[in-house]
Amino acid sequence: MTIDELAAHTRTPSRTIRFYQAKGALMAPEIRGRTAYYGPAHVERLEAIGMLKDRGLSIRAIRDLMSRIDRGDLDLGEWLGLEEKLAMPWSEDAPVVMSADELNEALTGLPTGTLALTVEFGLVERRGDRYLVQSPGMLQVLRQAHGAGVDVHLAAEAGDIIEKHAKALTRDLVELFMAHAGRGFGTSSTPEAIRETIAAVRAPARSAVSLLFARAMEEALRKLVESGLTLDPKKRRSSSRRR
């Protein structure tokens, strides 16, 4: 079939097909004379590309994945199984939709303006007359921090700091582990072996983060004490003027 016929058959615009070819995600067509012809393999590949794009993969990631599949290093079905395993949540904290009354109840005891604050920091998103709470667990953390004497805005800022560093930490760890797949991470580089190792490493990974955070906090507070920094605002201002 020609590119126009392929476009009609797969409901993929011709320009998109050419884009996929240019990026190396779609194999080249067979050229007969001046006409390019496509076959069932191209239809199958376009379906796979669409499925992978729906899962959030970039065209570059799709190209690399397809290259491995074409070399016989990976089976798409196995990879999809691995992707499903990787997408499994690491906690029971999942987004929920709440009515205004339910959200107000969840924020009971917190200062006026907390709802606007949660929207500002991305914890809550308004959807018409309802609210999407991205992390009910973080709302509970906000309540606990406020109960411990921490201003809610300050607690939200602290949450932002933790999230920023957590994202950097997990990105570096994923890159490290995947670079050593089958060579230190997993008994082999097969999707099944990686799935098993990821499932097994969840508990020790979470324990390591908790332990190392506790040690780092202890060290930071110890250095604060050793520096002689006072918590009395008046004394801090006085010390600053002397310097």
Largest sheet: 3 strands, antiparallel
Number of structural units classed as domains: 3
Overall mean pLDDT stands at 86
User: Cα distance, first to last residue?
Assistant: 81 Å
Shape: elongated
| Fraction in beta strands | 5-15%
Helix- and strand-based class?
mainly alpha
Rg for CA atoms: 26 Å
Index terms:
single chain; 243 residues; mainly alpha; Multidrug-efflux Transporter Regulator, Chain: A, Domain 2; 3 domains; two-stranded antiparallel ribbon; 64% helix; 7% strand
Question: Would you kindly provide a written description of the structure presented here, covering whatever features stand out?
Answer:
With 243 residues, the protein is mostly helical. The protein has 3 domains: 3-74, Multidrug-efflux Transporter Regulator, Chain: A, Domain 2 (Orthogonal Bundle); 89-163; 180-243, no CATH class. Helix content is 64%, strand content 7%. The protein has a 3-stranded antiparallel beta sheet with strand order 3-5-4. Strands 1-2 form a two-stranded antiparallel ribbon. Helix 5 (76-86) runs parallel beside helix 10 (191-226) and helix 8 (136-147) packs across helix 9. The N and C termini lie far apart (81 Å). The mean pLDDT is 86.
